[in-house]
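As a representative case, the lines below give one protein's residues and fold tokens.
***
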Amino acid sequence: MSSAPTAPLTVPGLPGAFADRKPPYSLEAEMSVLGGMLLDADAIAKAIEIVDDSMFHREGNRRLFRAVTRLWERGDVIDVVTLSEELKNAGDFDAVGGPAYLAQLLDAVPTAANIEYHAKIVREKALLRRLIEAATSIIQETYENQGDVDQLLDTAEQRVFQIAQQHDRKGFVWIKEILWPTFEKIEALQANHSSVTGVPTGFHDLDELTAGFQPGDLIIVAARPSMGKCLAHDAEIVLDDGSVATIAEIGQRRQARLLTLGDDWTLRLTEPSAFFDDGVKPVYRVRTRLGRNVETTLTHPFLTLQGWRRLEELRVGERVAVPREIPIFGQEPMRECEVKLLAYLLGDGCLTDTTPEFTSGDARLREDFAAACAEFGGLRLRGEANGGRTPTLHVARDAGAAAGRENPLTGWLRALGVWGCGAHAKHVPAPVFQLPRAQLALFLNRLFATDGWATVLASGQPQVGYSTVSEQLARQVQHLLLRFGVVASLRERAIRYRDGRRTAWQLDVTDAASLAAFAGAIGLFGKEEALARVERALRGRRRQTNRDLVPVAVWDRLAAAKGARSWASVGRAAGARGYSNLHVGRRGLSRPRLLALAGALHDEGLQQLARSDVYWDEIVAIEPAGEKQVYDLTIPETHNFVANDVCVHNTAFTLNVAQHAAISAQQCVAFFSLEMSKEALVQRVLCAEGRVDASRLRRGRLHDDEYARLATAAGYLNTAPIFIDDSPGISVLEMRAKARRLKADRPDLSLVIVDYLQLMQGSGRSENRQQEVSDISRGLKALAKELNVPVVALSQLSRAVEQRPDKRPMMSDLRESGAIEQDADLIMFLYRPEYYFGPVDKEGNSLEGRAELIVGKQRNGATGKVDLVFLKEFTRFESFSPRSDGM
């Protein structure tokens, strides 16, 4: 059985299936409203509160409603006679139906008592018609859409939201219609004994200056990014393709995929959401027991077992997290002969003579080198006995090559950037970092074959080592070993030569797990028997060296998980022979022992810690390193990344405003946190509200009274109307949609906070970042007007502020777009002199905790300065009082 083809949807007008349907309306209700208005002048006021002329479906009824309203506004008597004259004067008498229709209106309703109910019917039918109109328009635009789907969704949602909230977008409004509501508001303000007419901020002087944050305003709070949590420009970061780039290079590219450490203690790949050039700042060099170096500002956090702690809080002897393994390999292979030649020449080669040279006393290595040269092609070797010293092979171009042509090996080394490098300047060229796993293992195998060794020390301790006079080469080899899970320590030592002492850099692998990983994944060409002895020593040695220990502070976590159980029972369940064998609290724990104890306690968090991807390295020095250009990255969710093979970390005022508005004033607040997770945000709010030291909370070292304050703060927050969204990289369209939905659920929504503006995404159609930020600021201003609430957005200042002697921010410092200045109704700058100049000023006056909030723009008020106090241990700003000087 055949069927007729389906007719396409036709627009404008209703869809085909609904084309024959009439729009919803009630003629009886419309007539009852108009008739009631003719019967009773008091009923007119009731009707006007519910409906307007646009809500009547019949055009004649719209004209009648407007005529009655005009008579009522003039205070004229309203009956059939006066209404007829009004209609005739306006030319509408015949259009509404003449005297017959007016008589019909009077007969339609005997009394005006029910006019409110009839008006609500008229209004409901009008809303249904508007919904149909909006849906029809959405269908039409959907079929015709050639642009951004997100923009289409936002427009559709906005139309439906406006209908649901009864926000009819009309054209121009006559000023006389606004005057009376304005005077009502003025009278309300006069009756209000408080000077705060908007959302209170909790800072008295600021509220006096601004009268609170006003509905419909876009408020910008600007400050320098990262609060000084920055890395020196040359900090090196491993990318997902195996390549290594400095943080400065990544900041210039504004794109990277790198390693981050999750809450489960495992490393994974992620992408930064923001990149910051933070100017020139004092940096400090942190050196660890493994020989790792990283230079950061004093406020940059490092990961300890007690949580992320700023460098200024750390001391020599404390342990910080570094990766145990960086299992990243590239997909850019070389020829095998090239890998071998490069390793040999970096190890025992000369790259500064007329031709490359390789010096080795091992016949197998010389043979392997010669075979690699033959495979490379276009080369010939010339041996040199060196008068009984170590033989040297000179690599020249093939005799049959055209005159004047460069040695192909020399040209290749030059392209790699290593030709001409003396022994102290040798380094691993960039392509090596992107080699596949097997070829990278081959490179290290041949490199260790030159200046590496495997031995069993007199103490019985097995060891694999490597030595070079190039510090850069040593550090690069240390990193490449880490890709195979080999943790090597680096130390500087003096070597005695005939012409005096020289400095060399030595890598040592002594940890049992790392030695096994080296033997299994890399090996040692030409010294296989020595490596075999190391493996036998590993198997036969009763107690192996294990430097990969979890710090002693883990016992506190174990004690908390243990509860009332005895250590003896926990030890038995873990397979230990007894209480004494646990050495409770005396030393760090090996991973297997911790895993056994965590399993006995059924503690998943401790089990994750035992299986973690971090090695706990000891800080051996913290020393000033001068002033350097610094950069930072923002990592969504985890807020950390790996730099120089160390785990490093990357909003307090706006959060304090949210606390006061929600807790003290009981006003509904929406908080969009684009940088911090919702859990971290709540933890910060708890510390600020309960006045609890945030660093002690992270370390699990709270005092009993602090627990009590924390519980009290939790009680306040439990009923506080704060709603948090921590979606990273949210777009302005998505933010507006979420805010609308919250407004629909919570009509009392009073404040929207965005932390922070530069982490938002634009529409994707902008030609540059400045235009994108302009679109974002306009979108936030539109959101403030649409919801009629203040929108507070944290923004960043450019580094231009760093160039001025007093470091005070100004309007021109707003980062990335001047449009922010144009769109904002109120712009404020946070300024902490202590951050720039230290704890005292030039006159010796204390700057500790001092802060200023500079109001640089206020569209409807004065500008000025508000003094604040920053309590960094609580991450809390407070109003300044003279007694604060004595803090």
